[in-house]
Design a protein that fits this description.
Length: about 230
């Protein structure tokens, strides 16, 4: 219902927005330029959809680019919450199954984001290698280490250790992020006003985690995020 509300209240501009997003992706606009445009669209769509984003801990985002956001995963709405709340541009990694969903497809293209087919190990390795190269060169990424969305509201699934290997190989700062009630806007059949909270937690720098296994890092990041979810649900 909320998606329909957003579309209806933005109906006159929707075709233009989709065409421009596709154009940006096709003509390789810079990530920063594409992100700034997309952020304006997200802010507008959220207002039209009666969604308020509260951002906490923005000061924890590393000052130098080349970091990776690792949030919990609640649904299709998650990325929209991050685009509005993060002043720093990022690309993201999504599962291959969603890469052809209208709007998400255009958003992925405009941000030069990556899709990963978890059933194809060889292709998955190539995606991770590309992400490592891009993060090492100063791009920021967001990846959902749970692999699939939690269907338990503000309770998490286990985070997969393999999802952290890209950050480890790039020796990049890992930024745990907690999103609270991000499942409500698109998964609940309601158009009541809703507030989604995004918490950027203190980053783990390479020196902090270099002696840890990927599974240990995953467990630590999950623990930090779940503490925030429990305190704010």
């Amino acid at each position: 219902m909320r998606i329909a509300l957003m579309v209806i209240r933005c109906i006159l501009g929707v075709p233009f927005y989709l065409i421009k997003l596709a154009y940006m992706g096709k003509h390789n606009w810079s990530l920063e330029k594409s992100y700034n445009y997309l952020r304006k669209l997200c802010i507008m769509a959220n207002r039209k959809g009666r969604v308020t984003i509260e951002a906490h801990g923005v000061e924890n985002i590393p000052k130098k680019d080349g970091f990776v956001f690792f949030p919990n995963h609640q649904g299709l709405y998650d990325v929209l919450a991050f685009i509005e709340s993060s002043p720093r541009p990022f690309a993201f990694v999504a599962k291959a199954e969603v890469k052809n969903i209208i709007l998400l497809k255009q958003v992925m293209s405009s941000l030069h984001s990556l899709s990963i087919d978890r059933s194809d190990l060889r292709k998955s390795v190539k995606v991770i290698d590309e992400m490592v190269e891009r993060v090492s060169s100063g791009e920021n990424f967001l990846i959902f280490a749970e692999g699939t969305r939690s269907k338990k509201g503000n309770q998490m699934n286990e985070m997969k250790g393999g999802s952290f290997k890209s950050a480890i190989k790039a020796k990049a700062p890992i930024v745990p992020c907690a999103i609270v009630d991000a499942f409500v806007p698109f998964d609940k059949s309601s158009i009541k006003k809703v507030t989604v909270k995004v918490f950027y937690l203190e980053p783990l720098y390479y020196e902090d985690y270099k002696d840890m296994s990927s599974l240990e890092i995953a467990a630590l990041v999950k623990e930090k995020i779940q503490e925030v979810l429990d305190a704010n649900s």
